[in-house]
Write a structure and sequence with these properties.
- The chain is an all-alpha fold.
- Helices cover 70% and strands 0% of the residues.
- It has helices spanning 5-32, 49-53, 56-81.
- Helix 1 (5-32) runs antiparallel to helix 3 (56-81).
Length: 84
């Protein structure tokens, strides 16, 4: 399979999506736990239905996976450019 720069760049959208979900879920949990300064963020309305059902650790695992996969795809792309 050939990997293109466009594909590797598109993976960054996946990372940003998981990062946004992770932050939204974390702030919502903190707001729900009574952190007064975060009470206004006590909403999961920014999350997809699927992300609302996931735990914070599940979303973090997805973020870690997305970052690792991006790193690996980038290495494969660069190796291919160098004939490896």
């Amino acid at each position: 399979m050939q990997i293109t720069q466009e594909q590797v760049d598109a993976l960054e959208l996946w990372i940003e999506d998981r990062k946004s979900a992770y932050l939204a879920k974390g702030f919502a949990l903190a707001g729900a736990a009574g952190v007064e300064k975060l009470a206004a963020l006590n909403s999961e309305s920014q999350l997809s239905e699927a992300d609302r059902e996931k735990s914070l650790s599940e979303i973090k695992a997805e973020l870690d996976l997305a970052e690792e996969f991006h790193k690996n795809a980038r290495q494969i792309l660069f190796a291919g450019r160098q004939g490896g």
